[in-house]
Amino acid sequence: MAGRPAGKPAHGKALKVTPPRLTAVRLDGLRDDDAPDFRRGERYDGVRYSRADADGLELSGIIFAECEFAGVSFNEAQLRGASFRDCIVNEAYAPVLRAARSTLHDVEFSNPRWGSAELYEGGWQSVKIDGGKLDYLNLRGSRLADVMITDCIINELDLGSATAARVALKNCTIGTLDLSGAKLKDFDLRGTDFRTISGLGSLAGVVIDDYQLGLIAPLLAAHMGLVVA
Q1: Which of 86, 103, 120, 205 is the right S-S partner for 184, CB 3.0 to 4.6 Å?
Q2: Hey, how many other C-beta atoms are within 10 angstroms of the C-beta on 2?
Q3: Is residue 63 classed exposed, middle or buried when 0-12, 13-18 and 19+ CB atoms within 10 A define those classes?
Q4: pLDDT at 81 over 80
Q5: With the C-alpha atoms ordered 189, 193, 199, 203, is the resulting torsion angle positive or negative?
Q6: pTM score of the predicted model
Q7: Segment 84-119, tens digit of pLDDT
Q8: Smallest Cα–Cα separation from 216: which of 187, 199, 196?
């Protein structure tokens, strides 16, 4: 929202918003694997992958712990129930990402490029996404805690029926944000652009600034059946 005024607490009251509690990922002593042989249900520890290609692989239940990805393609790979813990993932690419019911714990993403990202019914704990472009991020029914997304373009973010606490989206651009049936606490949208929001009945727990309030006021009025004359 270029040139907009800074948001101020309503009525002069200090805002009490608990920010995401992120654990910085520190990886030491990694071994390099330039020709990985990823397999379903296997565990991979302490490995650095450079330009790894996992396109189209069946990798349900795979586990990555203390791994670094310097460019990786997961296009149309099946990552259902996969687990990433203490991982750094740079420039991940997937026009189609299938990772429903996956678990992310202490994971940092930098400049991901995802098209349709099916990550519904997953669990995210201490996750950071910095930069990148996501066409459709499906997190319906997911459990999110301590998540920070910055400088990211998201065409559609679906959080329907999700549970989220201490989540912040900073300097992002969101086309459509769906919060239908979500349960939110300390969900900070200040400083992020959005075109439209659905699920207005689930806005409790969302933190916005004055400018954003002006944008959604007509939507709220319509939702509540108010007539502004």
Answers
A1: 205
A2: 4
A3: middle
A4: yes
A5: positive
A6: 0.89
A7: 999 999 999 999 999 999 999 999 999 999 999 999
A8: 196
Report how many helices (DSSP H) and strands (DSSP E) the chain contains, helices first. Answer: 1, 17
Q: Report which DSSP code applies to 79.
A: -
**Contact call for residues 52 and 59 (beta carbons, < 8 A):** no
Phi and psi of 40, rounded to 5°? -55, 135
Whole-number Å distance between alpha carbons of 25 and 21: 13
> How many angstroms separate the CA atoms of 77 and 60, rounded?
9
Residues sharing a CB contact under 8 Å with residue 82, sequence separation 6 or more, in sequence order: 59, 60, 61, 62, 63, 64, 99, 102, 103
* Residue positions counted in the chain: 229
Structure tokens, 88 = 């750094």
Give me the pLDDT at residue 200, please.
86
- Which amino acid, one-letter code, is at 85? R
Only one residue has tokens 């309030």, namely 213
